[in-house]
Write a structure and sequence with these properties.
Length: 320
């Protein structure tokens, strides 16, 4: 993608956003994968679990969710009486898109007697046919809490599902979905960085493929990878996830050396910011300002879908 969409620093605009947020009793939440300037203007920055937990507890009148569409939907389902604004409704998620609700429902029907676990990166309609929602931050814990002989369908991220299967010895039935950003990281690229930086720790998000996770010193959600850096301090880290997380890592550990993992560079990908999620990067200061000022675009979720989707989300929050 071109850099036209990138959020650039604009202190005047950031101050104006903060002023508007205070005036309207709005809380600005952002995911770690958004641009640094977006994270800096937010009241709260977190991984998808922390964002859901924060939304469930906020007493703000308005939530501005700086992230992708499903994150706004989750906020609205958790807070039906609040106004939930998403600065760009076109900020979708390839993983959520890889799991159309009608096809997932058919898949569920083909595996009767299974508990349905869905990753939070799904549409509200998929959550509506789910028993328990999980995030990368709690999936292992929640799956492990179920009886060992429980039949489980896990969707839509097959890499996260396969990783949980490999660690727990479960045989969950996996939906064949994936995230285009995490699927692009290559084993060869990481091995070559390891040769250049033999002492560096490899930190990887579980949405990466299994051969790559096998090289990691730490596999975890964005928050778990950040915590690892905070706990381990200075040193070298090869970071195998969306590069937006580097902003908080650098703030947490300014003396450490962070090496963003290179994705596979294939034909037509030269010049591509391949370790960036172009959807997360659609959120700019200008769009945050406009959406706060106009109180648009507002996230809406069909009431009957929301009524069914809230149950597995609440179940996740209880089990986390
Ligand atoms: P986290 O659960 O680590 O926030 O990851 C969300 C996501 O979109 C990963 O691609
Ligand atoms: Fe979705 Fe992948 Fe972007 Fe995360 S990084 S929001 S899973 S497309």
């Amino acid at each position: 993608m071109s850099n036209d969409n990138k959020a650039v620093e604009n202190p005047g605009l950031a101050a104006e956003i903060r002023r508007l947020a205070a005036e309207k009793r709005a809380v600005i939440m952002a995911h770690y994968y958004t641009e640094s300037v977006v994270q800096d203007v937010a009241d709260f920055v977190g991984d998808s679990l922390a964002l859901a937990q924060y939304a469930a507890k906020t007493d703000a009148a308005i939530i501005v969710m700086c992230g992708v569409h499903f994150m706004g939907e989750t906020c609205k389902i958790l807070c039906p009486d609040k106004k939930v604004l998403v600065p760009d409704m076109n900020a979708t998620c390839s993983l959520a898109e890889s799991c159309p609700a009608d096809e997932f429902e058919k898949f569920v029907g083909q595996h009767p007697g299974s508990t349905v676990i869905s990753y939070v990166n799904t549409t509200a309609a998929v959550k509506a046919v789910t028993d328990i929602v999980v995030t990368s931050g709690n999936a292992m814990k929640i799956v492990s809490s179920l009886p060992e002989d429980e039949k489980i369908i896990f969707g839509p991220d097959q890499n996260l599902g396969a990783y949980i299967n490999s660690v727990t010895g479960r045989e969950m039935t996996l939906w064949p979905g994936a995230c285009h950003v995490h699927s692009r990281f290559s084993v060869e690229g990481i091995l070559s960085l390891k040769r250049e930086h033999p002492d560096a720790k490899v930190l990887a998000h579980p949405e990466c493929k299994a051969p790559l996770l096998a090289l990691a010193d730490k596999v975890g959600s964005t928050a778990a990878l950040l915590k690892y850096v905070e706990e381990n301090g200075n040193g070298e880290y090869i970071v195998v996830t969306e590069s937006g997380i580097l902003h908080k890592m650098r703030q947490a550990c300014p003396e450490a050396v962070f090496i963003p993992a290179p994705p596979e560079v294939g034909e037509g990908m030269v010049g591509c910011h391949c370790n960036e999620c172009e959807y997360m990067r659609m959120i700019t200061l200008e769009k945050i300002y406009d959406c706060l000022r106009n109180e648009q675009p507002e996230m809406m979720v069909d009431a009957s879908v929301a009524e069914r989707a809230i149950r597995p989300i609440n179940r996740m929050l209880e089990l986390s």
